[in-house]
Amino acid sequence: MHTQVFVENLVNCSVRLDILATDSVGTKYNIEIQRSDKGAGRKRARYNSSMLDANLLQKGEDFSELPETYVIFITENDVMGKGLPLYPVERYISVTGERFEDGAHILYVNGAYRGDSPIGRLMHDFGCVDPSDMYYDVLADRVKFFKESKEGVAVMCRAIEDMWKRAVNEGEENRARNIVLRMLAAGKYTVAEIADISGLSIEEVKKLQSEKSA
């Protein structure tokens, strides 16, 4: 599994994938975590799927060797508005109603769903700050590691610093600002540490802190 994977298009728009993973049978998964409804648009899902396909075959390989692919959007809100936990998106042959079965799948996960089901409990855990309130031990243990152990906090600091540098280098000021706000919300970093990682002055971090409190 790789995070923040840059998929380049030499002619048109390139994309950065939050997570790109491969399972034991070669199926590819692009997972996007979206707090903004705008970032989870249907045509973005389509584009991500096409960009995956465009980079999965080597020259000379047959199209039949394309692996199964899944583009999965985990959204903070119910962007489809139907109150369901999952929204699988598939291609169909319109005149017969049969699935096209081309191996490309899109799945929207409703992060606001809290039903008494595995997906409801998982979405609950995604929103938890305290690992002791989580249903799934595997996820709780990883959160404890990153929030409470010296090694885990160091890993998180490096990851956040890398995210900040990428955002600044790409001119994504809003994204960089959101990273600082998430660090403040985590409550694990001093203002001085956030200033050191982000390159902002202590006064600028304090200003963001005040805006967050307001």
Would you write up a description of this structure?
With about 210 residues, the protein is an alpha/beta fold. The chain has two domains: about 1-115, no CATH class; about 150-214. About 40% of the residues lie in helices and about 20% in strands. It has helices at about 40-55, 120-125, 135-150, 150-170, 175-185, 190-200, 200-214; strands spanning about 1-5, 15-20, 30-35, 70-75, 85-90, 105-110. The protein has a six-stranded mixed β-sheet with strand order 1-2-3-4-6-5, covered by helices on one side. The longest helix is centred in the last third of the chain and has 20 residues, at about 150-170. It is globular and about 60 Å long. The two termini are about 40 Å apart. The mean pLDDT is about 85.
Question: Which features characterize this protein?
Answer:
214 residues; alpha/beta; 2 domains; 41% helix; globular
Major pleated sheet: 6 strands, mixed
Radius of gyration: 20 Å
Measured between the Cα atoms of the first and last residue, the distance is 38 Å
Count the DSSP helices.
7
